Amino acid sequence: MSASNGKKKYRGYLTWTDDMDQALLDVLVEHYNSGDRTVNGWKPHVYTAAVRNVREKCNMDVTKDHVMSRCKTFDKHCNILGRILAHDGFEWDQERNKLVIHNEDAWSSYIEKNKAAACYQHKVIKNWDAISLIFSRDHAATSEDVSAGAENGQEVAMKVAEDFRDHTPSSPSTSGPSSQYRPGPPMLTQSNKQGRMKRFRTKDALFCMSGNIKNSFQISMKSNETQEEPKTACPKEIFAALQAIPNLARDDLLRTYCILTSSDRKFECLMALPMDMRKDWLLIEIGKK
């Protein structure tokens, strides 16, 4: 470790303090609201501004690599915690900056399928409002989702096998009972090129239906996506409306910003109120009244 201009300089691993996180997130929130985060990541000037702000406010000579590494950590927190909070029985404690588990059975079942979430039971994550605002986005399906899709696929395949079984021609009738005749399970059949019938096995039904199973799973996932409320309000417009409310604390602004950017309807409700009632309504929404 060396010193330059009175600043502590780090070339490798860096331990981030609460003040450093705050300085970094202040810049990221500002540039997020300005539309400087694209599908490919932050625009280059955002990293420059973030590095400069952390250096000036915390007297730490951090680099762009340090900032990018910290952003990856925030993104990981948002990914895992966001999925947890999407399930019933869990919520976030804004005062203690920790996860609240109301249903222990649900938690045990969840971490059984999502091992990486186990350490978040007691983990303290400060600045969650800012982190969830900046880094929240649609992630890939969880192992729980994939498992459910696979089970649905198996049910579809078995239903197809039953349909084939129902349509199998019955055995020709005989003139009388035969002591050698032993009724067995119906045999699934399909025609080959010579016109003869061969056994249609269960795995054949599964193979034939694999494309339909995949399509059904994708349609199911898309139907879940379309259930989200349409977001037509501009984030800049929402942020400006909140800034116009007199005496609205910074933390309250961020919390209500998260709510309004995820629900166009709530933003409409806010704008329908007179200015002197908007702060009280927002405080009710975040549970402070």
TrEMBL record:
Ranges of compositional bias, category Low complexity: 169-179
Family annotation (InterPro entries): Myb/SANT-like_dom
Domain Myb/SANT-like: from-to ranges: 15-110
Region (Disordered): 164-196
Pfam families: Myb_DNA-bind_3
Record-given protein name: Myb/SANT-like domain-containing protein
